Amino acid sequence: MKAAVLRKVNEPLSIENISIDGPKDNEVLVETKASGVCRTDLHYIEGNYTHQLPVILGHEVSGVVKQVGDNVKYLKKGDTVVGCLSIFCGRCERCLEGNPALCLRNPIWNLSRKPDDKTNLYKKNESINQFLRLSSFAELMLVHENSLVKVDSEIGYEQLALLGCGITTGLGAVLRTARINAGSTVVVIGCGGVGLNVIQGARLSGALRIIAIDTVQTKLEMAMNHGATETIDANAQNIVGNIIEITNGGVDYSFDAIGAKSTAEQAFDMIRPGGTATIVGLIPEGVKIELDGVGFIDEKKIQGSCMGSNQFRVDIPRYIDLYKQGRLQIDSLVSQKLKLESINQAFSDMKTGQLARSVIVFD
Ligand SMILES: [Zn+2]
Ligand SMILES: [Zn+2]
Asked: Which ligand is in closest contact with the Cα of 41?
C-alpha cells in the first residue's frame, strides 16, 4: 500500500510502498477514505514533539472496515468508521470513572501484538512505526477496535474524518472539559481547525459573547461564520487590556487553541476572578508558562484539555446528528482536498495559516 513516511525531522514526507499485516485478535484492517492534516502532525515533522522514526503520521481519519480479527464483535466488514487517538481500555480507573480520554493504558497500548510478533507496518525487513495507534496517511490502517467508532455512512468521508480530531477536540473542550453555562462570555485564541470548533461549541452552549482572536483576517471572517459574535486582530497592541475593558473585568471562559507560552499566559490573564482558562492547543515539549500568582486568590483557574475530554463513541454520533440538523458546520471546515502525493503541500499551506483544514482523500 501507498503511505507517506516521515524519515527525518524537518524533511518532506516520502511516498513509499509499505506492507501491512492482517488483523488478529481485536484488530481491524481499515481502508482509509479521508484524513485531515492536523497541526499535531506538523509538530512531529518539525521536531517539537519526538517520535521513533521512520513513522507514518496522520490521526484524523475516516474509512471502511476491510477485515476484522477473531475477537472483534463491535465491527464487521463494510462498516463506516471514524478513528480517534483516544483509544480506551474500558477497565482502568480513568475509563471506569468516565474519563476514557485519560485511559491509563493509552500510552502503552500496542494493538494486540506481543514483543516477538511481527510488526504491523514494514518495508522488507525494516519496521515502520505507527503513529498514535492510527497512521492515517496511508491507504490502509491496522488498528485496535477501541480506536474506532462506527458511524452513519450517509455523511461525506471528508466531513467524517474531521470528527476524529479537530471537531471532537474543539467541541469537547467547551462541552466536556470546561462545561460552560448558557449566557457565558467566551474568548477563543486561534481560529484554525480546532479554534473554529471551540467557537461552534460555545455557540451550541448558548454563550452570549464569543470573542475570536487571530492574526489572520480570513480566519477572523471564518470565526464570524462559525458563531463568533465579535473579533479582535491579534496584531493589535494590548489584547489582554482590551478584552478586560470590553468585558468589564475579564471573560468567564478563555480557550487557547494555539498552544504557545504567550497565548496560554494571555488566556489566564484575560479571565475574570473565578473564571477558567482552558489550554486546548498542544504546547511544545519543554515550554514552561508563567502565571501571575495573585490571580489564584481571585479563584482564577487554568486547566488542560486532552482531546476535548472526549468519549468519542458517544460524542461523534451526536455531532453527526447536530451536523444533519444544520447546527454544526463541517463542510465549511474543509478548505481543500488533496491526494496523498500532495501531502507536503498541505503542510506548507498550514504554515501560511490561511486554511481551516486540508483533507487527504483516497480513491
Ligand atoms: Zn489532531
Ligand atoms: Zn482505560
From this structure: 1
